[in-house]
């Protein structure tokens, strides 16, 4: 009864009971929820970390799919398209790279010119010391040198307004054609490779050292280094194919391309490598004052005799002049030689270990050319053994690249030298001995014949060769440039900025002239693109046409010298391809692909979908159109802040999504007809290309940062070299000032009489000197006159007069008292001829004179020497 009553109560109060149960369940659920929430709050950091790890894991999986999958899905690609955006940092880094490239190239060229001038100054001071030229001549050159101090290049203020870059349609067209010409030469190495071998070697060497390295900006960035290596490879293969008849020709001859490669890698960019590789061990050898290495038995014998007589104060009664065999009969000489050989092996091991342990420091470009050299020789001479091939590699890597820097570290800036400082004879001999042993070891050449007394080291040479052999083999194990630099023939069309080169007017004219001269050999096809560009350019212009009208005063008496100086002015060329992006059917397939990819990226940012065809067939919502328009406005603002030369090609950016989709569909049909994409796989091919661009963008940013660091390092080294040159100039200045002070003191002891006009007699111009041709012939100055017998020489008279310009002389000829012709002689030109070994020159195109005796005559009569 109680049960039924209770049950009835529950039935009567069912709504209330349900409410109580709901409240109870709510309390339990709330308690569990609050407990769980408190648990989360107590472990907030751990939860955030777990969520982060999960998101990172998902992102990693997506990126692995993007990188590793053969056909990454659109949903994954969509997540990473933001990586293709160019940020403000990207533009800043691009601008900084461009600035540093220009600065590095300018500094290299400035240092090269400064080095040439310093070498000439060395010669002039040497001649001054020999009392061969006047102090005024040296001071004149010093003045020119100081103007170039610091490597500053001349800049013509109005070149942008009047010259080839002036705002006229005709000049602009010429400029664009030159930009297209140099782009073609830069990207198609076959033209320059053929041109190099069309010129005489002395002319091609100068062309390579100036124009070619300028064209590639001295490989100051990844792109230019890649292209320069392609030129080296093409030219080397051409040279081996056409000019190498035997395997040993590479070793015994002086191949043009090998010389160019070595000079380039030992230049400004490769200097840091050689310093890191060799400077510490070379400096250690030089700083060891107790180290004496002399492996010449005769010299060791003479040094021993001198030491013996100096110590005893008596004659040794030993013969002074002996042969190698006689010197080796003395135990003292043998002991000293053995001690030298022991020291030689010890220090050679140090240098060898430094080289072998630093393979990674060896420039990639040099290693790649070594690989090309080995493969090309093997291809032409399939019977050549591995040892023969590796000896050729060793000839390049050690003998040509490293050996000279060990022998003369001061000449290659491997060690720091103070102005006026030099390596002493003992240090030079020690380094030369080490280099000689390493040279023999690298070529596996034992000491024999006249070096028989060194045969005790032959076992050491054989052991060292095995180490070198392994080193040379590993040096050739490098990837191809395309893989190393992640580049191909389409890289330029996706690069943010146009390539820029800095080239002088003289170099542009020289290149144009050479191309016209050898066009049949380098571009035999009439419709070759090179021939088209040369036709557009026409005849070779002169310097004045580059500078513009009014740049040169037509009445300037020194017009030729002025033009010569102005021809060295550099201008910048922004290189472009002859065929840029067009419309319709003329569009290049690769550029159409790029244009289509840009449109697809714009669309998939704002409209989701699992496949490209699904997105293209599904109409965009109003919200998607609004989001897309907002994105395009943001891009337009960013582009407006970007420097003009850094802006990307953004076409059709302001079109609505639906119009872009229609354009994408048209482009995809065109690309399908070209065989580049297929609708059967829902255009997965173009999605794969977008995925590749995303991956490459990351690599490009990484390479750009590495390039920035490399350029900064190179510029630092160049500035240090320029500082050294400035110290050298200061050293010369001090020397010349000392000469001036001595001259003043010497002149102050003389009494200078003043004539009636108040001019010191010491300042008067020297009186003219008159000689008959017969007298000059008797003195040996005059050797002969074309079409004139010796007995007629008495009828010819020469008047030699000193002009107001120091070192310049007027020479007048008279026949039977009638003045015939007049020429000017420059004492510095004569001295340069003497320095270069020119014994005979012609005056008046018919009078042969002895250069040395003519200089002697001028010095004696006008300088009192």
Automatic annotation (TrEMBL):
It comes from the Eukaryota. GO terms for cellular component: cell cortex. The keyword Cell division does not apply. SMART domains: IQ (SM00015), RasGAP (SM00323). Pfam families: IQ, RasGAP, RasGAP_C. GO terms for molecular function: actin filament binding; calmodulin binding; GTPase activator activity. Residues 210-443 form the Ras-GAP domain. InterPro entries: IQ_motif_EF-hand-BS, RasGAP_C, RasGAP_dom, Rho_GTPase_activation_prot. One of its GO terms (biological process) is mitotic actomyosin contractile ring assembly actin filament organization. Residues 701-728 form a coiled coil. Keywords: Coiled coil. PANTHER family: RAS GTPASE-ACTIVATING PROTEIN WITH IQ MOTIF (PTHR14149), RAS GTPASE-ACTIVATING-LIKE PROTEIN IQGAP2 (PTHR14149:SF12). This is IQ motif containing GTPase activating protein 2. It comes from Rousettus aegyptiacus (Egyptian fruit bat).
């Amino acid at each position: 009864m109680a049960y039924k009553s209770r049950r009835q109560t529950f039935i009567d109060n069912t709504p209330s009971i349900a409410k109580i149960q709901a409240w109870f369940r709510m309390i339990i659920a709330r308690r569990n929820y609050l407990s769980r929430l408190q648990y989360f709050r107590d472990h907030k950091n751990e939860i955030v970390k777990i969520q982060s790890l999960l998101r990172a894991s998902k992102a990693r999986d997506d990126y692995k799919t993007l990188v590793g999958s053969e056909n990454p899905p659109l949903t994954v690609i969509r997540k990473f398209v933001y990586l293709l955006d160019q940020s403000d940092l990207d533009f800043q880094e691009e601008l900084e790279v461009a600035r540093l490239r220009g600065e590095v190239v300018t500094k290299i060229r400035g240092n090269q010119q400064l080095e040439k001038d310093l070498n000439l100054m060395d010669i002039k001071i040497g001649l001054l010391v020999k009392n061969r030229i006047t102090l005024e001549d040296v001071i004149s050159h010093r003045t020119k040198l100081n103007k170039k101090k610091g490597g500053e290049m001349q800049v013509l203020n109005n070149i942008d307004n009047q010259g080839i870059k002036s705002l006229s349609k005709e000049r602009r067209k010429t400029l664009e054609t030159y930009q297209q010409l140099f782009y073609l030469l830069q990207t198609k190495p076959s033209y320059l490779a053929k041109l190099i071998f069309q010129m005489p070697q002395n002319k091609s060497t100068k062309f390579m050292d100036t124009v070619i390295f300028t064209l590639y900006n001295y490989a100051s960035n990844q792109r230019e280094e890649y292209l320069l290596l392609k030129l080296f490879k093409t030219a080397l293969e051409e040279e081996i194919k056409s000019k190498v008849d035997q395997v040993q020709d590479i070793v015994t001859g002086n191949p043009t391309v090998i010389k160019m490669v070595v000079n380039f890698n030992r230049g400004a960019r490769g200097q840091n490598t050689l310093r890191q590789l060799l400077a510490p061990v070379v400096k250690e050898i030089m700083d060891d004052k107790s180290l004496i290495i002399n492996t010449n038995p005769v010299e060791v014998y003479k040094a021993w005799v001198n030491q013996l007589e100096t110590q005893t104060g008596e004659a040794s009664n030993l013969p002074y002049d002996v042969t190698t065999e006689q010197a080796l009969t003395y135990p003292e000489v043998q002991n000293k030689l053995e001690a030298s050989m022991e020291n030689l092996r010890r220090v050679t091991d140090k240098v060898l270990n430094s080289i072998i342990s630093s393979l990674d420091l060896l420039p990639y470009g040099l290693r790649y050319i070594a690989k090309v050299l080995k493969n090309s020789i093997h291809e032409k001479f399939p019977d050549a053994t591995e040892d023969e091939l590796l000896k050729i590699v060793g000839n390049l890597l050690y003998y040509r690249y490293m050996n000279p820097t060990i022998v003369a570290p001061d000449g290659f800036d491997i060690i720091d030298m103070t102005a006026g400082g030099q390596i002493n004879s003992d240090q030079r001999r020690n380094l030369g001995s080490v280099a000689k042993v390493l040279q023999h070891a690298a070529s596996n050449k034992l000491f024999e014949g006249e070096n028989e007394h060194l045969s005790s080291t032959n076992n050491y040479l054989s052991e060292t060769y095995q180490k070198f052999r392994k080193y040379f083999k590993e040096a050739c194990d490098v990837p191809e440039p395309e893989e190393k630099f992640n580049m191909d023939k389409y890289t330029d069309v996706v690069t943010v900025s146009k390539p820029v080169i800095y080239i002088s007017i003289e170099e542009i004219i020289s290149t144009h002239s050479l191309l016209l001269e050898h066009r049949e050999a380098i571009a035999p096809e009439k419709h070759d693109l090179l021939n088209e560009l040369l036709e557009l350019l026409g005849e070779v212009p002169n310097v004045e046409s580059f500078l513009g009208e009014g740049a040169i005063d037509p009445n300037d008496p020194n017009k030729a010298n002025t033009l010569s100086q102005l021809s060295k002015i550099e201008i910048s060329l922004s290189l472009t391809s002859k065929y840029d992006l067009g419309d319709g059917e003329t569009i290049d397939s690769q550029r159409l692909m790029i244009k289509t990819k840009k449109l697809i990226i714009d669309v998939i940012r704002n409209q989701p979908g699992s496949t490209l065809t699904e997105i293209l067939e599904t109409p965009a919502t109003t919200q998607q159109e609004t989001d897309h328009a907002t994105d395009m406005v943001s891009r337009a603002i960013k582009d407006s802040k970007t420097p003009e030369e850094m802006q990307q090609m953004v076409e059709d950016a302001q079109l609505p999504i639906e119009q872009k989709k229609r354009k994408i569909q048209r482009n995809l049909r065109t690309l399908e007809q070209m065989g580049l994409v297929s609708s059967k796989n829902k255009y997965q091919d173009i999605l794969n290309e977008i995925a590749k661009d995303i991956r490459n963008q990351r690599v490009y940013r990484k390479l750009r940062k590495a390039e920035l660091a490399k350029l900064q390092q190179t510029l630092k080294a160049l500035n240090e070299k320029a500082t050294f040159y400035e110290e050298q100039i200061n050293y010369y200045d001090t020397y010349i000032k000392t000469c001036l002070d001595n001259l003043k003191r010497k002149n102050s002891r003389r009494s200078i009489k003043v004539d009636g006009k108040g001019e010191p007699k010491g300042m008067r111009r020297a009186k003219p000197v008159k000689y008959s041709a017969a007298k000059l012939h008797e003195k040996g100055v005059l050797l002969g006159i074309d079409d004139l017998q010796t007995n007629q020489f008495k009828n010819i008279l020469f008047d030699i007069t000193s002009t107001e310009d120091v070192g310049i002389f007027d020479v007048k000829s008279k026949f039977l008292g009638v003045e015939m012709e007049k020429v000017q002689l420059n004492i510095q030109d004569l001295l340069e001829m003497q320095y270069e070994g020119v014994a005979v020159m012609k005056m008046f195109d018919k009078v042969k004179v002895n250069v040395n005796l003519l200089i002697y005559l001028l010095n004696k009569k006008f300088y009192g020497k």
